[in-house]
Amino acid sequence: MANAPIPVAILTGFLGAGKTTLLNFLLKDPFLADAAVIINEFGDVGIDHLLVERADENVIEMASGCLCCTIRGDLIDTIHDLLARRGRGEIKAFNRIVIETTGLADPAPVLHAVMSEPGLLAACRLEGVITVVDAFNGMATLDAHPEAVKQVAVADRIVLTKVDLLVGREGEEILFAVIARLRKLNPAARLLTTHRNEATAERLFTMGLFDPKTKTADVQGWLAAEAYETGEKRGRRHRRGHSHDHAQGSGHPHGEHHHDVSRHDEHIRSFSFAEANAISPQGLELFLELLKSYHGANMLRMKGIVKVSDDPSRPVVLHGVQHVFHPPARLPAWPDGDERTRLVFIVKDIQKPMIEGLFRAFTDQISGGADAFTDKTLSLNR
After folding, report:
1. Distance (Å, whole) CA 60 – CA 37
2. Could you point out which of 84, 158, 313, 334 has its C-alpha 20 to 30 Å from the C-alpha of 306?
3. What is the pLDDT of residues 282-306, one digit of tens each?
């Protein structure tokens, strides 16, 4: 396994959520004993770096700017430098890279760097995104900052901090409201808390496609398609109940704890679908090109396992963030008994029927075929 791609995890969360405190805790865990950590700090003086207790030669601080704007080239250079020094034996071998972003960062450009930089693709693989959310102030933060909403939407793991500050009945109601909101934004992310040391390194960092113990693909756990289906059903029930309340004019009882979900949340949708029919390699390529061209900016995250007609016994794994896709990879066989295409999406201002119908057009499941549906799709997006 010496030449196996090194997993890269991204730790994000809004200002004051507790990322550095969590990182301090995690770096004491033997599970991360051989991890390299890249710390980004917005500004010239890295104050947070002084708080990282394991400040050894494998902890790299970057102070040249925010990861979400100017730092992408620096990040790539830093990872390349780390890999080169590791190869020359100048630093001890590491088995994982953890990138801590600034609290203002959109994690998408960091994901783009790991997923699309040719020099990194052979050496690294994206493990996933860990987003830290302050349970005490989380509702106000999500209301005020669309960046915080996006950090939650793209997460594979969500860590709730400051749960101990929520006391009594009111605190319990706030906690339930925060959890419900996070579940609505991202139904598939595993939710853990720092309370009673629940958010351990092993629970947080075993989130990639490949099971680190068996070295085999854990597609079911990685996709978590069932969670998206449950989230869709819950959303439909919520919308029906909301409409009923307005029709009856009942509103909310006086004194009941209620928090209006902000307009940012209303733009985010998550959904999944499955398809038994295979898609041709050319159809899959065109489907992905149309997604990137017409929906790329609003496609926050997409994962999938796809049955392709040239070799239906060997599925293709897809992973995209906005307009950037990791190069599709073939698995040697279907990892479970389900040999259907399964795709999951977290999107902004995109309706499920549009994407589902577009994909099925390329499997000839819509009368008129892909060309007719594509023409319709393009006209709707002009």
Report:
1. 6
2. 158
3. 999 999 999 998 888 899 999 999 9
